[in-house]
Amino acid sequence: MWNGLVGVVKEAYTAGLGDASVPRPLMMPLVRGELVGMIWVRPLKVGQDALAGIAELANIAAAAGADEVVLAWETHDVATACELPIVGPAPCLNMVLATQGGHVLHQFPYSEQLLSRSPEGWATVSPDWRPAPAPQPGGELVPPIQTAVTFAFTPIELDHPDPFGVTVVLMEEDGYRVRLTEAFDR
Questions:
Q1: Which residues are within 8 A (CB) of 82 and not within 5 positions of it... i.e. 6 or more apart?
Q2: Minimal CB count within 10 Å: which of 31, 37, 60, 137?
Q3: How far apart are alpha carbons 89 and 94 in whole angstroms?
Q4: 26 contact partners, CB below 8 Å, separation of at least 6
Q5: Which residues contact 53 (CB under 8 A, 6 or more apart)?
Q6: pLDDT tens sequence across 61-107
Q7: What pLDDT, in 10s, does the model give residues 14-26?
């Protein structure tokens, strides 16, 4: 499952960079080894809004009762949005596999190969994936990612007959892009 998730995320990043954009941070909750879906962060404003928006990715995982989560983000993108120092390689796709018992940070550094530049100055690039460092059990996570990991395993208490469904709807209304697998689709 892990290699499949890494492949999907790398493909999405390659496609996004080819469209002159960096894909937004993404969470993939799993319940008993089954993927619940993919949740991309809502549009963010720089600063506190970005910190909160990324951390709130945890809501669907918590509502689903996830026992594992995978988060993916780009080092420079999250550091810039959250006004944090860059920690680790950049540019770099980061993925963390987390359970209540801990997490393992995987980093996939790349260099950018310029494909074209639009008249407006937008660059389309292709990642040239570099050798990945060894996975880092307990590796340092930037604050909004660490918060999302922590709260992904904190049960959500909602007085509603379908707390998972209502959480999905509320997050979609807030601008999160949610794609559930068939088993979890409302």
A1: 46, 47, 50, 51, 54, 142, 143, 144
A2: 137
A3: 9
A4: 9, 12, 38, 39, 40, 41, 57, 71, 72, 73
A5: 41, 42, 44, 144
A6: 999 999 999 999 999 999 999 999 998 888 999 999 999 999 999 99
A7: 888 877 777 899 9
Distance CA 161, CA 159 (A): 7
**Cα distance between residue 184 and residue 164, in whole Å:** 9
Backbone CA torsion sign across 69, 28, 4, 140: negative
Residues 99 and 112: beta-carbon distance below 8 Å: no
Residues 6+ apart with CB under 8 A from 134: none
